[in-house]
Design goal:
By secondary structure, the chain is α+β, with helices and mostly antiparallel strands. It is built from 12 helices and 25 strands. The chain has helices at residues 2-33, 37-47, 187-194, 198-206, 226-232, 235-245, 254-272, 315-319, 417-420, 424-430, 434-441, 461-478; strands at residues 53-59, 62-67, 80-86, 90-97, 100-107, 110-116, 119-125, 129-133, 139-143, 150-157, 169-171, 213-215, 289-290, 298-300, 303-308, 322-328, 333-338, 344-350, 352-358, 364-371, 375-378, 384-388, 394-400, 409-410, 449-450. Residues 48-202, 289-438 form the Cupin type-1 domain. InterPro entries: Cupin_1, RmlC-like_jellyroll, RmlC_Cupin_sf, Seed_Storage-Functional.
Length: 487
Amino acid sequence: MGNRVAHLLLLLVLCYGLTMAVGLHREEKEDWRGDSEETQTGREQEWFMLQDSKRVVKTDAGDMRVLRNYGGRIMDRPIHIGFITMEPRSLFVPQYIDSSLILFVRTGEARVGLIYEDELAERRLKIGDIYRIPAGSAFYLMNAEEGQRLHIICSIDPSESLGLGVFQSFFIGGGTYPTSILAGFELETLSTAFNVTTDEVREIMTRQQEGPIVFIDDSRAPRLSPWTKFLTLKEQDRLQHLKRLVKFQQQPSEGEEQMTWSWRKLLNSVFGQENKKKGEKAGKSPDSYNIYDRRPDFRNNYGWSIALDESDYQPLKHSGVGVYLVNLTAGSMMAPHVNPTATEFGIVLRGSGRIQIVFPNGTQAMDARVKEGDVFWVPRYFPFCQIADRSGPFEFFGFTTSARKNRPQFLVGSSSILQTLRSPELAAAFGVSEDRIDHVISAQREAVILPSASAAPPDEVEEVVAKFEKVQKVIKSVGNGMIMGFD
């Protein structure tokens, strides 16, 4: 009797475990593959494309929009992607936010001021420059050029955020729009802290109405803003005006110094150092890093690639984010590969192409055509490849969720893991002879970035086409047993 009860309990446990396993598999399938055959393809294509765009700032002088990533069970950490556009002679007013940023200057030139270890650091950024702004650090951003818009792409790491939205800005400068965080204090409190009259405090707390991005040239601004008035004053006049706002004449008490020192330096940088020579550095913040000045990590006749990690640019270590840039010639391909250390986010800078991603079970997760401005992401461990259209070069830039050195595992090509694994066991896994598998995996003579058939020398075109057809036949003969191919 006792044995029967034990066997019955064991059977119930096994049934329960089977039910849970089937349910989990079904749930994952619904999450990863869609609810039905009719809808799964469209939903899968959308899932790996960041399309939830939110405009967080919009003024006459510029705007900022953010593509939000909601994460998920296969996302090691979410990263949002931001796009900042600033008109000539405009300023993104001083603020700090609850997320760290990594800036990439796409076009134009920028001047960024940052409080770093209680020192005001100012850097001039040009096309290709990478620069990190830590969460909670006060900064401003300026497009001081006369005739060129500034376009910046940035990663937004919400790991330290308050969770109130995509990110939360705390504007230092402001008035009625945006509202300065100082406005929440009583006028008497600010009057005492600044050592000025309440009327002077009221004036600077109510004048700004043009938004977070403002013109600093009154010929462009719809009305004369306080920022414009400050910057059009002569240097000595600006300094005198600041002295009325912040007590430079006397040494503050220890408590006052802790409260006002960083604010004072930031304000003085914006309004009192306009005459600094171009390129002159201030403060001890790390320099920017220009990705276009770096020699490619890999280059052949079909393209090149660059990857920055913490050993190349030390500030990346603090964010745990890497940066990469890839350029493919017309029709070429970044070979199918796997990133075993990080999730990747890619932004198409120019050209168009296709992104193919494969699920762990060997089925296709996405085959999407992308163009300039599109943003895609690839989960860690998922096989994928990028293919340039034949109409022209395909260039994409992006961020990864690890600042460590990335060692992608290529599935096809002369340096692929199949070459390393070449053995009787590999042939047995594919169910073909050793001669056949050797012939197929050695057909591609190039590594990492592969040519299209039309890019091969004329006398090799037929040979390349024939070998690729053999590769496809072998892959299809395997079914879902191994993930390595593409159509």
